[in-house]
Amino acid sequence: MKRKSDGFARGSDPRGGVLSASAAEALGARVFGYVTGDPGRLLRFMESAGLTPDALRQAADGPDLIAGLLDHVVADEELLVACASALEVPPERITQAWRRLGPPDPGEFGA
């Protein structure tokens, strides 16, 4: 089974740089704007995450919402490519934000 970090350092940029946490959060906010800007995209995300409108409002202030949203976008290649195109960023950049903001891989926990 391939883990999300196979072959990549967590949050690394293929050009050799590292996507900072603040840059990942800023990109995550832009992805959030893209997904919530269309009722159909928003509904698909809410259904996949099991969120009600009230739960979405409550989660809006927490970092887990952006991480979950990025997980949703990265899991759907068509959505990922469309989002990247709309935001004028390479899809890999969104994937880097997902790696940076998502939970650590099991191998990254202490010994």
Overview of this structure, please?
The chain is mainly α and 111 residues long. The chain has one domain (21-101). It has helices at residues 21-36, 39-49, 53-59, 63-75, 77-87, 91-101. Helix 4 (63-75) crosses helix 6. The longest helix has 16 residues, at 21-36. The chain is globular, with a radius of gyration of 14 Å. The model is unreliable at 1-16 (pLDDT under 50).
Give the low-pLDDT segments: 1-16
Q: State the order of secondary-structure elements, H for helix, E for strand.
A: HHHHHH
> What is the first-to-last residue Cα distance?
21 Å
Report the sheet-strand fraction.
under 5%
Count of individual helical segments: 6
- Number of E strands: 0
Largest sheet: none
Radius of gyration: 14 Å
Q: How many distinct domains?
A: 1
The outline comes out as globular
Task: For the structure shown, list the relevant keywords.
6 helices, DUF3572 family protein, DUF3572, 111 residues, mainly alpha
In brief:
The protein has 111 residues and is mainly α. It is built from 6 helices and no strands.
Strands, helices and their partners?
Layout: H1 21-36, H2 39-49, H3 53-59, H4 63-75, H5 77-87, H6 91-101
Helix pairs in contact: 1-4, 1-5, 1-6, 4-6
